[in-house]
Amino acid sequence: MIDLRSDTVTRPTPAMRGVMADAPVGDDVMGDDPTVLRLQSDVAARAGKEAALFFPSGTQSNLAALMAHCGRGDEYLVGQLAHTYKYEGGGAAVLGSVQPQPIEHAADGSLPLDKLRAAIKPKGDPHFARTRLLALENTFHGQVIPQSYIEEAAALARQHELALHLDGARVFNAAVASGRDLADICRPFDSVSICFSKGLGAPVGSVLVGSRDLIATATRWRKVLGGGMRQSGILAAACQYAMAHHVDRLAEDHANAERLANGLRQVAGISVVRQSTNMVFVDVPASHCRALTDYAGTRGVLMNAVYGGTTRLVTHLDVSRADIDTAVATVKDYFARA
Ligand SMILES: *Cc1c(COP(=O)(O)O)cnc(C)c1O
What we know:
Elements: E1 2-3, H1 14-22, H2 34-47, E2 51-55, H3 58-69, E3 74-79, H4 83-86, H5 91-96, E4 99-103, H6 113-119, E5 130-137, H7 147-159, E6 163-168, H8 171-178, H9 182-186, E7 191-195, E8 206-210, H10 212-224, H11 233-245, H12 250-265, E9 271-276, E10 279-283, H13 286-298, E11 301-302, E12 310-314, H14 321-337
The structure holds pyridoxal-5'-phosphate (PLP).
């Protein structure tokens, strides 16, 4: 199967399974799983932060960070389409008593500074929630958020005494695409959540990085949220392996996405909206969505065009250059018959 639905679908490679099987483990809730401790200290060092904490999911890592920065009745500024706001079940409000203040995105995925400024509530007035945090996302829908914008947003946050969190689920894609060090991208942020279960190919796992104090608070919330794991070195070993072997190769995913976009641009019947890092966005006419998805599926190409509107195709570790050519040929064949 050539699965273009998401970069979460990657399977652990035989070598990754090998290091998982061999990982020394302890009880991580007691703080003595050596493989988890090693991953945490290596990710912290690579991100240029004091400390790190291993989580079962990015959703939980983001939520623990929001709860570490904000208390009951506080507020965070976040993109209208940001994962932490829209795709995490409303966790900040549901479990954190933290009010989100969504902001409309600009076309490049950034949150315009004037809109952010206008949404920050006056201090000390009991009418308002206390604005405490700005949360950004990079990459956002595949787009690398310009570092110059991030610096400006960070200056605004500092001026208003807001903390700054990054949902960096795909921050390694941003680093590879922009040729920057991870630490460089993470520098302006007080906390960054990094996923290992997307294009990096680990089966499970996210890591939150930040100051020692922030990570201590997040450790408490992780326990409360049910994320304290025991012999989790087995999972951390997969992430450690991914960081050593699957970061630089993200460039192949980006090249494959570009090849996919260029191939699909030659197909009459659909239009390519945009390609950024490992994502290609295409418009499939509503009348073809179901039939194209079914046809491709029977030919071993999985895509999710069933909702109509714009469909996202994602490249990753388990999609080769040859697979891209097969996928393009399959879409071409469909429209030739339709
Ligand atoms: C996948 C993802 C997350 C975390 O999702 P989990 O499935 O909980 O690991 C967070 N933010 C973004 C942008 C993501 O794509």
